[in-house]
Each structure stands twice: as C-alpha cells, then as structure tokens.
Amino acid sequence: MNYPIWDVAFGSGLLIAVVSIVHVFVSHFAVGGGLFLVVTELRAYRTGDQSLLDWLVRHTRFFVLISVVFGALTGVGIWFTIGLVHPSGTSALIRSFVWAWAIEWLFFFIEITAALMYFYGWKTLDRKTHVWVGWVYFGSAFLSMVVINGIVTFMLTPGRWLETRNFWDGFLNPTYLPSLGLRFAFSLALAGVYALVTGTRHPDRAGRPGIISWSTRWIIPSFLVLPAFAYWYIWSLDPGIWASAEGRMPTASRYAIIILFASALALFGSLLAALRPARFSFVMSLVVFLSAFATMWSFEFIRESIRKPYVIYGYMYSNSIFTRQWPPVEHLTVPGIRERGVLSVAGWTRHKAVSEENMLDAGREIFRLECQSCHTIGHYRSIRSLIRERNWDYEAIHVRLGSLDKMINGVMPPFAGSPDERQALARFLASLNPHIKPAQSPLLSGQTIFESNCSSCHAESPDDALFARTQQLDEAALFEILGQLDSLNPDMPPFSGSKEERKVLAKWIAER
Amino acid sequence: MGLETFLPAADPVGLPAPYWLLKMLLLVTFTLHILAMNCMLGSAIIAATARLWNKSGDHLRLAVDLGKKIPTFLAATVTIGIAPLLFVQVLYGQFFYTSTVLMAWFWLSVVGLVILAYYGFYSIALSRHTAGVRLTLTAVLSVIAVLCVAFIYTNNFTLMLSPEKWRTMYLADPSGWNLNLGEWMVFPRLIHSIVAAIAIAGLVVVVTGLMKKRSDPNYGVFLIRHGATWFLVATMAQFVTGIWYLISLPRDKMMLFLGKDMLGTGLLAVGFIAGLGSVMVMLGARRTGSGRQIAVSIELIITTIISMQGMRDVLRMSYLNAYYRPEAQAVAPQWDVLTIFLVLFVAALALWATMMKRYFAGRLRDDGAV
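Output (structure tokens, whole complex):
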C-alpha cells in the first residue's frame, strides 16, 4: 500500500515460506550442533576414541559448509525476501528492534569467527584452545537465538507493545520463553539428526554404532521435552489465535496434524537407531532427517498461519494496512482507505478511480494491493479455484467482500476501499469464473448446499450463530428466512440456490 | 503525477536513535564492509588471473595461497555487511525498499549468487589439487558470480536515489525485473568499485609477501612485486575511472566535488592526494620491499577509501535532499537497549581480539590455512 507490491505469479507468501523454513532448519542445527561439537570433542578426548574424533573432524567440515555458508546466507535471504514481500512489516520490525538486530549481529560476528577457527583449528590448535573456541562458538550461537527469538515471537504475540510501544514489552512478549525453550530443544535434537546422517557415512564402519548411539542421546530426550514446551507455547497464546489450528483454519489445522506424525516418525526412527545402532543405515538416517524437516516445516507453517490476518498481530494486516492511525500514515487504515479509496491512497496504481471502462483493470490492481500478499490468481492459495469451487457469481462475491473479517476461518482482513472499488474487485474476481455452473441439482444433500453457501462464515457447530439462533425454528420458518437473508443482515448474501435447494437446506438445518 | 503521491511515507515507528548516531554507524560499518569486500573480490580476481596466467610456479602458488584466504574474506564481507544494510534500512527504508521491490528478482538472486561463489571458493580452498581445468573454471565462475552481485548492488543503490523513475518503471513491470540501466553512471560507478577491489587485494598480496619473506625470501619478494604491480596499475587506473565516474554524474552533482560543496570538494582533494601519495610510496616499496613503506602506503590508501565513502554519502544526500529531511524524522530513542548494544560492542571486540590472540598463539604449526 505504502510500497509497491511485488507481483509474484506463483505467490510471494510461498517464497517466504520456502526460504525461511530451509533457513531455520539449518540455523537451529547451527546452535544445537555447536554444543554437540564441543561436548563430543570432550567425550572423544575423555574416552580416547580416535574413530569418534576422526569422524568429528569430518563432521565439522560438513557443519561449517552447511551453517556458515548456507545457514548464514539463507538468513540474509529471509531478510531480503520479507523486505521484498512485506516492506512495511519489515520496516516496522527493523525500526522497533534495530538494536536487538545489532546485538544479534555482534553475536553472529563472533559465531562466524569462532566457527572458522574451530574448523581450521583442528589441525593447528592445541586441544585446550580448540575446545575453548568451541565453547565461544556455542555461546554466541545460542545468544543469537536468544535475541532473534524475541523478534520472531513479537510478530505473533506483540503483547503490551501495542499499547506502550516499549522495546522490552515487545521483545519479552508472552511467547518469548516457551518459544525459546521449544527452539533450543529442537536445535539439540537437530544436532543429533544431522550427526546421524554423517555418522552413517563414517568410513570407519566399526566406529559407526558408537556415533549413532551418541547421536540418539541428543534426539530422544529433546523430542520428549518438546511437547511440554509446545503445550506452554500454546497455553501462552490467546485462545482465539490457537483456535485457527484446531479446525477453524484449514492450513494451520492440517499442519497441526502433520507435525504430530512427523515428530512421532522422527522419534520412532531415533528409537530404532538407539536400539539397533549397528543396523541403522544411511537411508534410515535420511528418513529421520526428513521427518525432522517436516516437523520444523509444520511448526513454522502453523506459526505463520495462525498469525493471519496480521503480519504483526493486532498492529498491521498481512496486506500492510495498519489497524490504528499512526502518523505519518494515518490514512493507511481500513476506515481511512474506505473514506479516500484504495486506488487514491496507494501510489502504485495505473488507475486512480474506478470507472465503467476500467472496472476490470482497476479490480485487478485492487486485488494486487489488498489480496496478493496471501492469494494468487491461479497458483498458491488460488482465488480462481476458490471462486470456481464455490461457484460464486458477482453478487455472491460482492456481498462477501463486505464481511470478509466475519468469515469463519478468521484469517481475512476487512476489505478496505470505496463502494466503487468493492464493485470493481468483485467484477474482477467474478471474471475469473466466467462459466457459472447452472443451479445445483435438487438431489444434492443439505450438507453440500451448506458447504457451498454458508460455510465460509458459519461453522457446522451448535455454538455457531446460525444453529444457535434457529434451534426453535421449524423447517417452514427456516425456508422463509433463507429467502430473505440479505434483508435480515446486510453482511449476508441472498441465498443463490434454487427453491428445491432452499427446501433441502432448511430441512437439513432443522434436523441438526 | 507528483512524487508526493507515491513516494512511500516514513515508517510510523520513530528512529530508534538520533539521526547522527545511526548515520555514523552506517558509515563506519559500511567502510569496514567495503574493506572486506575489496579483499575478497580483488583476491578472487587476482587468484583467478594467476591460474589463467600460470606462467611460473609462483603464480600458481599465489593462486593457492590467496584461494585459502578468500572464503574467510567472503565470510567477513557478508558478516560485516549485515550492519550497514540494517542501518540503511532504518534511515532510508522508504527509498531502499522501493528500489529493491522494483528489481526484486535480481536482488533476491544475490543470495543464490553468493552461495554459489562461496561454495566455489571453498571447493578451491579445500581441494586436494592445486591446479587443473576444474579449479580454474570454478575460480572464474565464482568471480563472475561475485561481479554479478556487485552489478546488482550498484543498480539498487543508484535506483534508490531516483524516485522520479519508480512509478513509470513499476507500472511497466511490477514483477521485479527492472534494473537501473538507463542511468549511465551505473557503469563507471561499478567499474570504479571493482578496480578499487583489485588495488586493495594487491596490498593483500604485498602483505602476504612480507609475512612469507623470512621463511621463503624468493617467493616473498615475488609476492611483494606482484602485489605492488596490481596495486599500482589498479590505483593509477582509478584516476581514470574516477574521473569517468565524476563526469558521468549530472552537472550539479559533479560540481559538488569541484567547488560547490566544501565537504565534497575537501573529501575529493584528500582522497586524491592520499591516493597519489600511496602510489608514490608503493613505487619505492616495490623496489625495496620495505615493510615501513608498505605500511605508509596502506595507511594512505585507507585514507582514500574513507574519504571516498564520505563522498558517496555526500552524493547520496544530494540526491535525497529533495525528498528527505533528517531533522523531520520522528525520533524515539531506545537508550537502554542502545547502551546494552554499545557495551556488548566493546565486549565483542575484546572477545574477538582475545580469540585472534589465542588462535594465533595456540597454533601448533602454520599451514597458511587462514
């Protein structure tokens, strides 16, 4: 809105997801792996295990090439990507937490120096200095997690910062500690997971079982404490936020199930490795590795999904519209934009007002401004597929645009724009579904009709307003009400099905 | 359409420290980043050229020795570079973010290009072999990747100074495939930076020669002469590329350095004289191999680099003056966190120095790995 929107056909949100998840999977390894290196080195000295030491030297090379190069660069990559996709959100984070980032940079600088010294120092340093460098590495890597965790958690739970704008209120926010525990425990598990992969490739076959066994001692306890931190994390969230992952929002709910299976598989694989280290193969280590990756992927997807419709919860919507008036961008709020028109407020549009001639083009530009931070036309979170599945026409879309924030999945910001602009957007979206299907067959079930017509705003639950308020009504009364939805509530679209469908739906609701 | 209708407004969160402090941190950390970048890019170019040249054993040996240093230089470039990128976003976010969105794919490709170059340099540094087509090809491709990054950076940091171009550019292509090629100064600016990197890396070779002179006098002298030649040729070429860059600027900007602005003119004079002095001293040092002369030459060229960074800022502000008033920025200082940062900064420097000391004191033998 304030900035031009980068038009990524396949979805800019997907780009952020891919870059950031790949990064966190490496950066967490960089923290836990640091502790693993130095503790394993001490263990090898104490036990006099030369095979373990030889493997550790090779593992350090792998560690440095993965964490110092790929981890560091993809970390910069996240920063680049969010700056491109969410300049306003990135700017808010940078301005609010620049000193936290600057402090993290100091730790990062020490971390990289120590990593290189540890790597090159295997051949050149005495043991004592080498171990000391290892501890410096781990300490600085852990502290950089301590800092960045405050900024990441702030986005979901800014807490009292929304009122005070105080650095510490934002940084030490409600999910800060559980998230730190969760991330650190997972980083220790990842140290073992990566070690399983290189351990099963150790040239000294006789040494492999010892390394595998040692690696599982990092994974299994960590996976056992993770649920406690996860519970604490969920407990620290506003219940309304977590409801998204409990069925309200499909993406978050799907990943909430995937994470259980993925983490169980990783734990099961590690238990197998612990019980039968000599028979644990490289392929099996890859299964554990991929399960751990799926666990991380799911966690980050859940975190990102339940934050919708905000990029900074309660402060800025995903499409960069502010929730409150802040100078000098007072106009970039929903009421401000409704008053002035989104095409006039955003500088980056060809059309500055809607006319009959430019209706579709202007609608396309409004889509880019307001919807494209999460949706694409035909790819990731495709709006075309959604409209075709639901068989929405202009009228149905136009009415729904007036009550987006009342949708049952709770992930949509309100539409911000003038009445003309709402029309233009609805016209553009309706043009994506030019072949409206004829009225559905009267043989369709009430459930199907409910899903097509009502489910975007109403849940199939006795607590939902639709069912709660119609408990005393019979089928005939419901039939009448369904015929005048838009006059009962201006946010509701008129029922668009046939008379037979209205009957079937009324009967279905009455039977609930 | 007036610029005020689309120029992004500053962020509603005020500056987290006074303007001057953020600016100072930007300039200091950027200068350090540029020094590391010069060592990395220039060393990569010299090492790749030495591989292609490969006239004598010394050239190949130089390529191998320098090749071992490049990953560390690149690590320093990236790590130090984070700080100025942070401060530039704090201070000039509304310009920086907009130009990056306009050239989004190129900007994002920087990450991939640096990863490729990084692995390329590491594969050379860690290779069991010292020569071969594969290593030469890797060296050349890695240099090309880093040069592409330099090209993209130059485009972005010049495009951010030209808001008047943004809207037309965006409406013609909102998908992030724009560059600032319509601006002629991009090319001399880029070439001026690359040649500077070669000159500084020449000094890296000279210093390596000084360190090797005691254990291997012939090779040490070769390095000093070879490095000094690179330094002298590149620095003298800089007088040409620098003038080219200066005259490629719009007249009012060029005149800032030719009398219209005291600071700009003073910085150019200091940079010019120090650069010339550095060349003169190095001409002598190339013959004598004197460590003292080399040190003076390095000090003088660092003075030039610092004054060039000052000039860069004078130029940036002259472009942004029309749209940006530092004094109009809302400031909401976070003194407590800032104090923690400054204390930790000193502590980190002390720890870093201790690490370096212990690392070199604890070395059992020197294999030239770092």
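The domain at 186-321+364-370 of chain B is CATH 1.20.120 (Four Helix Bundle (Hemerythrin (Met), subunit A)).
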